[in-house]
Structures are given as structure tokens and as C-alpha cells.
């Protein structure tokens, strides 16, 4: 891994390590695959997680580095959950969250961010503890909701992207910041396709119940 961190390429005057380049490309592929609700989403995410963990440790971003460990565990859960919820017609079955689930996601994001930021401050593990914590917790909430097949996980990703772009720029990770911008476009499209699939599944369930 040290080789991947020490070697890289220069793009538009910005040096990018092989680890950052490969990790962010794989992370970008994860969003593309999640949009299509394919099981390949999760093993590709595992690969991105390993690479980006090393990148964030070297950049002294403790929250983002710790996030990769949590993502790895959630990815294993998501892989298992999606395998159990496949449909021959629609692929992985998705749905919109119930109101209580939306409030739970919002509460977990708010409380988790405060708690994580205080931990990062106490441990001096990050030079930007609040945005670092928000990205950490937002990612966990998003991946958890994604594993559960909830459409709203795309909205959480938009919030994470909005916080992540300026943090990545401030950290000198300009390539990663550019990837976050591309993420936003894919997230908007993914939200639209998952909504369409959820409405189709819901309409089919209503038809089946009334017949």
C-alpha cells in the first residue's frame, strides 16, 4: 500500500497518488452500480474502502479514515441484505422510507455528528472535526439506508457531498473533491431511478392486494 501512496500521476498540475485515484474511481463506480441495484455494488465498495482508508490516514483525517472501517462492515451487511431481497423483474426491491424511518435517519445524523465531532476533538484526530464527523456519520446513515433499500439514502449522500467538497479541497485532495462533484450528478439520477422503481413496486403490491 505504501507504494500506491508514494507513486502517482500529475493532472493539471495536481499530483494524485495511485491509491487515491484507484479508490475514488472505484467509489464512483459504486454509485453507478447502486443506481442499477446490482450486487456488484458491494464488493467494489470493499475495494474502494481499503484504498481510501490508507489515503485518509496519510492526510491526517481521522474521521474519514475511521469511516472506511465502518463502511466495510456495512458493505458486508448490504451485500447480505440485497441478496435476500432480489426480484426477477425489478432486481433489488427498493421502497420509500416510512416517516418514523426518516426521523430516525435525521436523528442519527444530528446526534451522531455531535458525538463524533467531540470524540475527534478530544483525540486530536482531525484538524476539521465537525465536517469530518458529519461526513463520517452521514456516510454510515446513507449506507445503512442503502442496504435497507430505502430511496432516501440518496438524499443523505447529497448532504455528504455538499460537506465533502470543501473539506477535500482544504485537505489538498483536489481529485477527490472533483469526484465528489461527479458523485452529486450520479446521486440525483440514482434518486430518480430508485423513486421510479419504488413507485412501480408499490403499485404492483396495491394491484395484487386488490385482486
Short description:
With 211 residues, the protein is mainly α.
Report on this model:
α5 runs antiparallel to α6 and α6 packs antiparallel against α7. This protein has 211 residues and is mostly helical. The strands form two sheets. A two-stranded antiparallel sheet has the order 1-2. 77% of the residues lie in helices and 6% in strands. The chain contains eight helices and four strands; from the N terminus they run αββαααββαααα.
Unreliable stretches (pLDDT < 50, length at least 5) are none
Q: Look at the structure and give the mean pLDDT.
A: 85
Query: Helical content, roughly?
Result: over 70%
Helix-strand sequence: HEEHHHEEHHHH
Task: Report the strand count.
Answer: 4
Task: Describe the sheet with the most strands.
Answer: 2 strands, antiparallel
Fraction of residues in β-strands: 5-15%
Strand order of the largest sheet: 1-2
Which structural class do you get from the secondary structure elements? mainly alpha
Evaluate the radius of gyration: 18 Å
Tell me the distance between the termini. Answer: 58 Å
Overall 3D shape: globular
Q: Give me the number of helical elements.
A: 8
Which assembly state applies to the chains in this document? single chain
Q: Key terms for this structure?
A:
single chain; 211 residues; two-stranded antiparallel sheet; 8 helices; 4 strands
Helix-strand layout with pairing:
Blueprint: H1 2-6, E1 8-11, E2 14-17, H2 18-35, H3 41-58, H4 62-84, E3 86-87, E4 91-92, H5 99-123, H6 129-147, H7 153-170, H8 174-210
Antiparallel strand pairs: 1-2, 3-4
Helix pairs in contact: 2-3, 2-8, 3-4, 4-6, 5-6, 6-7, 7-8
Amino acid at each position: 500500500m505504501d507504494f500506491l501512496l508514494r507513486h502517482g500521476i500529475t493532472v493539471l498540475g495536481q499530483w494524485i497518488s495511485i491509491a487515491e485515484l484507484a479508490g475514488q474511481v472505484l467509489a464512483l463506480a459504486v454509485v453507478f452500480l447502486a443506481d442499477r441495484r446490482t450486487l456488484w455494488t458491494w464488493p467494489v465498495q470493499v475495494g474502494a474502502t481499503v484504498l481510501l482508508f490508507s489515503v485518509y490516514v496519510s492526510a491526517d483525517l481521522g474521521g474519514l479514515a475511521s469511516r472506511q472501517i465502518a463502511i466495510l462492515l456495512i458493505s458486508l451487511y448490504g451485500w447480505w441484505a440485497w441478496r435476500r431481497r432480489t426480484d426477477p423483474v425489478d432486481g433489488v426491491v427498493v421502497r420509500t422510507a416510512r416517516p418514523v424511518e426518516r426521523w430516525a435517519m435525521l436523528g442519527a445524523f444530528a446526534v451522531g455528528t455531535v458525538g463524533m465531532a467531540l470524540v475527534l476533538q478530544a483525540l486530536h484526530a482531525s484538524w476539521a472535526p465537525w465536517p469530518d464527523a458529519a461526513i463520517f456519520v452521514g456516510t454510515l446513515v446513507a449506507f445503512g439506508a442503502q442496504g435497507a433499500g430505502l430511496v432516501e439514502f440518496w438524499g443523505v449522500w447529497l448532504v455528504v457531498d455538499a460537506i465533502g467538497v470543501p473539506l477535500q479541497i482544504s485537505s489538498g485532495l483536489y481529485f477527490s473533491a472533483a469526484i465528489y462533484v461527479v458523485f452529486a450528478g450520479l446521486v440525483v439520477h440514482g434518486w430518480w431511478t430508485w423513486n421510479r422503481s419504488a413507485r412501480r413496486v408499490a403499485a404492483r403490491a396495491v394491484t395484487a392486494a386488490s385482486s
